[in-house]
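For the sake of transparency, this paper describes our internal protein records without simplification. Because each token names a local backbone shape, the row as a whole describes the fold. One such record is reproduced below, unchanged from the form in which we store it.
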Amino acid sequence: MNDERSDQERVESRAHLLPEEAAAGSDDARAQADAILAESDARAADQNVAPDTVLERRTSDQTVHPVEPPD
């Protein structure tokens, strides 16, 4: 499968409106899905694209401090 087809499948999948989006309405669900996915891809590729957003990539070992058993 090529990248273009993969992108098309992603847009088709995302074009199904969420309940909140359906309530607000959408003139073009495919264009909306394409814009949402493009912004998401940009944020994932460059963490400085959205300066107010922090994207952390850590494993559970880096976030959880082991609790020592009681003596």
